[in-house]
Amino acid sequence: MADMATADTTPPHATIYHNQRCSTSRTVLKLIEDAGIEPTIVKYLDTPPSRDGLRKLLDDAGLKPSQAIRRKEAVYTELGLAQASEDELLDAMTENPILIERPIVVTDKGTVLARPAASVSTIL
């Protein structure tokens, strides 16, 4: 019989790189909260990750910058990023955080770019 005193009652932790103007980001935040988790919310447009921090997030999610960049943003076209290298894309995302696809969610179970929103369930 399992000893209940040794059961881990620490609530799970999550960090969401969030843009409150994005409906998918708001949906994912609600899914996290509905799972009983009070996440750390990083408003990445206000406090963007460093280049190394963004590289780690993408590596942890198994993504290349080209898989996590918002191509529909005007700045993507303005900067002529269609033929850019992965390093150039990472630099552009660091300098222009609006280019970072969202939301990125980190938990003890992993890191995902939660698009579609329901994909966040794989790490909750």
Report on the structure:
It is built from four helices and four strands, in the order E-H-E-H-H-H-E-E. The protein has helices spanning 23-34, 51-61, 74-78, 86-95; strands at residues 14-18, 40-43, 104-107, 110-113. The longest helix has 12 residues, at 23-34. Mean pLDDT is 93; it is low at 1-6. The protein has a single domain, classed as Glutaredoxin. The protein has 124 residues and is α+β, with helices and mostly antiparallel strands. Strands 2-1-3-4 form a four-stranded mixed sheet, with helices on both faces. Pfam families: ArsC (PF03960). It is an enzyme of class 1 (oxidoreductase). Keywords: Oxidoreductase. Belongs to the ArsC family.
Topology overview:
Elements: E1 14-18, H1 23-34, E2 40-43, H2 51-61, H3 74-78, H4 86-95, E3 104-107, E4 110-113
Parallel strand pairs: 1-2
Antiparallel strand pairs: 1-3, 3-4
